[in-house]
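Exercise 7b. Backbone tokens:
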């Protein structure tokens, strides 16, 4: 480890910054699910082919349950984002064995899977949700090149 790295003053690589950006995005998305996202979006109703009245007649506590589900999801998203950003800032520069594989699998299971599912659902946000996996892939390619 160089003296700059020990002091934390080393310049970050583009790959590290992209991973930090993805981590921050996950934190923001988690906050959206924790504090803003309504239990049902118009696209949810379109996909299920029903309306709120029919859903609530069949499952009166559905919205309360969904709020709890999205609270858990949001916490996991934000927590994953914190971990990704920390690893990008503190660990990736050391290039430990397996770092590329771990970041690739993490991206596939988080932003990749979320984007794929939103395309399968025909989500109104599908194109926006394509950006994080593209950035993650770019970060992986840059990390592979050592930049």
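Sequence design result:
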């Amino acid at each position: 480890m160089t003296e700059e790295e020990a002091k934390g003053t080393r310049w970050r690589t583009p790959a590290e910054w992209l991973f930090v950006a993805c981590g921050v995005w996950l934190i923001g998305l988690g906050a959206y699910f924790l504090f803003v996202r309504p239990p049902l979006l118009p696209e949810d109703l379109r996909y299920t082919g029903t309306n709120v009245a029919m859903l609530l007649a069949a499952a009166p506590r559905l919205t309360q349950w969904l709020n709890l589900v999205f609270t858990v999801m949001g916490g996991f998203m934000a927590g994953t984002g914190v971990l990704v950003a920390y690893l990008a800032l503190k660990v990736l520069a050391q290039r430990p064995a397996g770092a590329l594989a771990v970041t690739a699998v993490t991206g596939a299971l988080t932003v990749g899977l979320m984007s794929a599912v939103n395309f399968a659902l025909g989500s109104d946000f599908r194109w926006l949700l394509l950006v994080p996996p593209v950035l993650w892939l770019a970060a992986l390619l840059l990390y592979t090149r050592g930049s």
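Instructor comment: The chain is about 75% helix and 0% strand. The chain has a mean pLDDT of 93.
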